[in-house]
Amino acid sequence: MKIVRVNTYTVRPRWGFVEIITDDGLTGWGEPVLEGHCEAVLACVEEMKPYLIGANPGRIEDIWTLLYRSGFYRGGGVLMSAISGIDQALWDIKGKTFGVPVYELMGGACRERMKVYSWIGGDRPSDVGKAALERKEAGFQAVKMNATEELQMIDSYDKIDAVLERASAIREQCGKYFGIAIDFHGRVHKPMAKILAKKLEEFDPMFIEEPVLCENMEYFPEIAAACNIPIATGERLFSKYDFKRLLKTGGVDIIQPDLSHAGGLTEVRKIASMAEAFDVALAPHCPLGPIALASCLNVDAVSYNAVIQEQSIGIHYNVGKSVLDYVKNQEDFQFQNGFVDLPVKPGLGVEVNKDLVLQENQNPHHWKNPVWRHADGSIAEW
């Protein structure tokens, strides 16, 4: 079997897809995208075509290593996201070749279903108590929200109080044991992160996410010492080498590699195992589309330390199109009591609606994240 075609597509709301076709007629789908840089990632996939055409798609480890190591320059969001999507598509082909879900080729599942959470609140969170209750009534056992709006390195306590009020509203509406994840989104710097983390303790969050950016990972132990809340991070890390530094630094309880950024299934499977050796949990980052979600679920299936899965159905970013719009087998992505069953169809487990993909690609999106400024005019972290 050989690869004969590699096609890339841009689809709303902010995603990119890759389709790899073999001479046997098998097709694999991947989701290579870096939010806000979709065109750059798809251009990188195009650059990698000469390495792919004519290659045996079953040699996934060799192709991954070729794409990562042979170009001299390596790592980073664009290159690794391109490799991620290609890797997903190759695993999709591999599973279809043998007629089984991908996780069956990775040792088989160690669980039957995966716990999931739902987003609430938007970029500037509001009405979160009501939204969380709606998710609870829909069967979810946990939600995640952004913590703050703009927050300077040293800022006023009214912004801290606003976060506490939102956390309190969810706890009051949903009860003591409902899961609340609070995403600092890299908007908070160390001085305020320590304060906010400490004050959030009374609401027993499931975890706080990205209290500071991983470029400042040496401060995670300091923030961990300031509170008794699990700390999650990792969506902006791109390889096992990045996660090696994070795990050795310490202070983190949950890692969140993104299957569309951190090297696909091949690399994240290794990252997950490395985290398990540090007694650190896995909760893959996935505010993306159906191929990325299916990829996550296949890795979750074989990772003992996987605890909960992000998914983007209903997320505020999904304007115009959403996850299930691109899925023919929507029945396989239904959430029940806060869980989703593992994929059942061969490959990654998602049947892509190619007609819609082709239609969307006729008018490519150009999604960019908002640019925020503080009251003094300086750039704020989004």
Which percent range describes the beta-strand content? 15-25%
Helix content: 25-40%
Number of domains: 2
**What is the global morphology?**
globular
- The CATH first-level class of the largest domain comes to Alpha Beta
Helix and strand content put the structural class at: alpha/beta
Instruction: Report the total helices.
Output: 11
**What is the H/E string?**
EEEHHHEHEHEHEHEHEHEHEEEHEE
Tell me the CATH topology of the largest domain. TIM Barrel
Mean pLDDT: 97
Low-confidence segments, given as residue ranges, are none
What's the CATH architecture of the largest domain? Alpha-Beta Barrel
The biggest beta sheet is recorded as: 10 strands, mixed
Total number of strands: 15
What would you call the quaternary organization? single chain
The N- to C-terminal Cα distance equals: 45 Å
From the alpha-carbon coordinates, what is the Rg to the nearest angstrom? 20 Å
Q: What is the CATH homology-level superfamily of the largest domain? A: Enolase-like C-terminal domain
